[in-house]
Amino acid sequence: MKKKIVIALVGNPNSGKTSLFNELVGSNQKVGNWAGVTIEKYEGSLEYKGYTIKVVDLPGTYSLTTYTPEELIARNYITEANPDVVVDVIDGSNLERNLYLTLQLMELETNIIVALNMYDEIEKQNIQINIKQLQQILGSHVIPTSATKNKGLHSLLDHVIRVYEADIVIAKNKLYFREEIEESLQKIKEIILKQPNIEGCASWLAIKLLENDEMIYQKLNKLPVWLRIEPLLKATIQEIELKYQTDPEVAITEDRNAFIRGAMEETVKFNRVIKKSLTDRIDSILINRILGLPVFFIIMWLVFQFTFVMGKIPMHWIASSVTVFSTWIRALLPSEILKSIIVDGIIAGVGGVIIFLPNIVLLFIALSFLEGTGYMARAAFVVDKIMHKVGLHGKSFIPLITGFGCSIPAIMATRTLKNRGDRVVTMLIIPFMSCGAKLPVYILLIGAFFPPEMAGSILFGVYVFGVVLGLIMAKILKSVMFKNQSEPFVMELPPYRMPTLRYILLQAKAKAYMYLRKAGSIILIASLIIWVASNYPRDYKSENLINSEISKIHSSQTLTEEESEKIKWLENKVLAQRTKESFAGRLGSMIEPAIKPLGFDWRIGMSLIAGVAGKELVVSTLGTIFSLEEPKGKPFNLANLIKNDKGFNRAKALSLMVFVLLYIPCLAATAIFKKETSWKMTGFFAVYTVSTAWLASFIVYNIANLLFT
After folding, report:
1. Which of 108-117, 299-308, 536-545 has the lowest mean pLDDT?
2. What is the tens place of the pLDDT at every residue in 343-365?
3. What are the residues whose beta carbons fall under 8 Å from the beta carbon of 282, sequence distance 6 or more?
């Protein structure tokens, strides 16, 4: 029977932790969300020397406080799930910064192995690290690794097994604080150890109490033991403040940093020859005061050209396959109602969304590449000056960039902003960033109404329009609602690295899987609901009269051209009447007066209502409605149907793209927004995004009408 080992990978962002995870488990990984949190959860497994090793990739974090969801997830998993081994992945070329998290892991007194990652870069930079001495100082084995070169992984796994089997004795928590803090910690620890109902490492709990950790405070303050702990805490705080003119939290941080400086002095020797690195040379262009912004726009323009041009061929293949499949199913099924449900409902709705999978995958490949190289951090640095002009700073740009993928993690990412005004304003403009769910709408409309040579530029223009309008709204919101100053902007610029193809493809695979899972669940159910809402109730009496008239014409042995045209007209009349009188038609007609100035009819209105659940549903709803209005037997191609529809033109296409770009995001993102703010602010959020979308679409529609007519 194989033994099972659970290991947790923890480390700073840009430490190569995810690359190490991908190399260890390969494609044997699962992607989901942490319970109650919309941050992605990665875990996988591998077989090694008779052991099944489960690997959990914790979110990248710089510390184990509770200021961000990433910190909270990493901390809770280690303290509550109790993995057998914690592998601390540190960037060897930035050892001093990475060791701060290592010390906090040591304080947890768990089984730690340090993976000294990117060892190839350490050698390139001629940095000499005395690994044996570092092991003695940390009390943990240090294994040189290079995830991108697949080096040191077997040694790391061997040590994981040895720690699990207790072949290696780990001297836990070798960090000692100044005398006053150590004495207080020891007394608090002794009190906690005498209480059997308190879970967790007693030393760590004591440290957290002195650091004024809110969660630990709430955990212990309701217990009877608090009556003994509180006087000790107060006495220590007074003593530290009197002697060092600071509070224990700052003193503990200072002691950690002092330990790190000492460890660096004893174990690391740097190459003192001042030499301009490749990173410095590239940064002289990419974050140049003059060139930085134009280069950023060129790079993003190329990303959207790549997304549209490269996605055109596979998109055509999928579209053709959907058409062939729907024709085959229609011929196979005997019942007209069943044919309509399967072909007009499910295939038209789900197939209309799946067609755009290549574009989604290509966009995430491009963004994963830019993130992996370290360029995204530079992008935030470059736009810092612009962000300051609207009352924010470059740090707010990271959630906005995240919003190009999905609004949910983007809203969560604003927790890194300490200033409440910055945080709320950033959340309020995140919906103006084009998430991946909006991309199918753009590609459908751009492909239908604009020539291929313009497609990439139009797509880029939509994204830029959202960013520019978001910045304008940020300026207004900061001036009216949040007049306080922003916090200073400090951001780490990691060295440039070439991400591995495997890393990029695994990221794209995870996003594709999530997209397809959504298509196979939410969109499938929504498509069936839209089909029912678009077919019922029916005026069977009126339909039967028209169908009788069609049958009489068909009874002729030979149909004249005039009779054939009349049959088509009567069939279209039945379909148009059915959809217009249906629940969907009635609801769409109710809101049509409000959206008519934007060029929209009831069909678009219905799709926009469905789009509140998820923006992909705009396409699937249009697919279902248009397929029901199309005479049976014709190959279904939504882009062609929209292009040939009298109710659509370029101006309306642009107006619809702008409205989809700006109006309220999906229900899940709105729920997260409410969780981060309040019901009152969420109400404002909904009204303000829809109002902005209406006004912007109205302006775009009228300008486009002047240009294109």
Report:
1. 536-545
2. 766 776 677 667 767 877 887 78
3. 496
Three-class SS state of 603: helix
Q: Are 61 and 105 in contact (CB under 8 A)?
A: no
Task: List the beta bridge partners of residue 85.
Answer: 7
Contact 353, 523 (CB under 8 A): yes
Distance CA 69, CA 48 (A): 32
- Domains in the chain (CATH in brackets) are 3-164 (3.40.50.300), 179-268 (1.10.287.1770), 286-480 (no CATH), 521-708 (no CATH)
Query: In whole angstroms, what is the distance from residue 440 CA to residue 357 CA?
Result: 8
Mean of pLDDT values over 446-474: 87
* CB-based burial label for 76 (10 Å; 0-12, 13-18, 19+): middle
Q: Is 558 helix (H, G, I), strand (E, B) or coil?
A: coil
Tokens of 483: 């007049």
User: Can you tell me whether residue 44 is helix, strand or coil?
Assistant: strand
The mean pLDDT value for 449-474 works out to: 87
Does residue 113 contact residue 157 with C-beta atoms inside 8 Å?
no
Comparing CA positions, the residue from 681, 698, 692, 670 lying closest to residue 435 is: 670
Give pLDDT tens digits for 176-197. Answer: 787 778 888 888 888 888 877 7
- 493: Cβ–Cβ under 8 A, 6 or more apart, which residues? 283, 287, 374, 377, 378, 381
Residue 277's nearest CA partner among 530, 32, 495, 55 is 495
Report the C-alpha gap between 668 and 26 in whole angstroms.
30
Rg (CA), the chain: 30
Average pLDDT over residues 219-226: 82
Confidence of residue 259 (pLDDT cuts 50, 70, 90): confident
C-alpha 60/C-alpha 213 separation (Å) is 20
Cα–Cα distance, 421 to 580 (Å, whole number): 46
What pLDDT sits at residue 484? 59
Tokens of 51: 């052991």
> How wide is the angle at C-alpha 147 spanned by C-alphas 143 and 149, nearest 5°?
110
Structure token digits, residue 589: 């007609």
User: 30 - beta bridge partners?
Assistant: 43
Residue 577 near residue 537, CB atoms below 8 Å:
no
